[in-house]
Specification:
Blueprint (H helix, E strand, L loop, with lengths): L11 H14 L10 E5 L10 E11 L4 E11 L2 E10 L6 E13 L4 E13 L2 E18 L4 E13 L4 E11 L4 E10 L4 E5 L9 E3 L11
Antiparallel strand pairs: 1-2, 2-3, 3-4, 4-5, 5-6, 6-7, 7-8, 8-9, 9-10, 10-11, 10-12
Length: 222
């Protein structure tokens, strides 16, 4: 049985109530599909606005106790997460953990972005708090309009801490500011200050390597 919301904005409480009412009616059903848009009212101390959820369809798997969204976009202020699929145990953003798979893209603050095959996004107190992306590789990018440069990075895993404004690249980490390159086991890039920290892991044989490219100068006529 399917029920369509047609881009209506519903509170988390309303959606969970509707789902709970459907459970006794369909004890043998495995999924419920619906076009969905959900808005979670922000707390008083919120920094970026309400959480908006848009999806092409929703499936509730009663046996696994999971909610699956297809072609999903979750946004809060300037932060946005897009993926082919998202899976969660509930629609509670107070302390939630979501798994995104398939062409995952996360828009960060200050013209930054992450791209990967898979991401785990954590919500705390109705805020997008943390995102960990993994891929082969996972990719980071940030534009610097003032210098007309683009910082790029890649690693097997990248952790984005929203409050601190940092991305932590680990396992075959590489980062370029558009002119110079740095690689190492762990690289931590501060998005707001546009600076990087690098360190070798204890007991690891890998070392930090920096490649400095010389500035290109035009030859002056003699």
């Amino acid at each position: 049985m399917a029920s369509s919301f047609h881009k209506r904005k519903l509170s988390t409480r309303a959606v969970l109530t509707a789902i709970s009412l459907l459970l006794p009616a369909f004890p043998g059903a495995s999924a419920w599909a619906a076009a969905t848009t959900t808005t979670v009212p922000p707390p008083k101390d919120i920094r970026s606005g309400a959480i908006q959820l848009d999806a092409a369809s929703t499936e509730v798997d009663y046996r696994k106790n999971t909610i699956v969204f297809r072609d999903v976009i979750i946004s809060q202020g300037d932060l946005k997460v897009e993926a082919e699929k998202a899976e969660a145990n509930s629609l509670d953003f107070e302390n939630g953990r979501w798994t995104f798979t398939g062409n995952v893209r996360i828009n960060l603050q200050q013209r930054g972005s992450l791209q990967s095959d898979r991401a785990i996004v954590e919500f705390k107190n109705n805020l997008i708090a943390r995102a960990v992306i993994t891929g082969t590789p996972a990719v980071f990018q940030q534009q610097n309009l003032a210098k007309n440069l683009t910082a790029r990075g890649r690693a097997s895993a990248i952790a984005y801490e929203v409050g601190a404004g940092t991305v932590r690249l680990s396992d075959n980490a590489w980062l370029s500011d558009g002119r110079n390159e740095i690689s190492g086991p762990v690289l931590i890039y501060n998005i707001r200050e546009e600076r990087v920290q690098a360190a070798s892991q204890a007991g690891a044989s890998d070392r930090v390597r920096i490649t400095i490219l010389p500035n290109e100068k035009k030859d002056t006529p003699k």
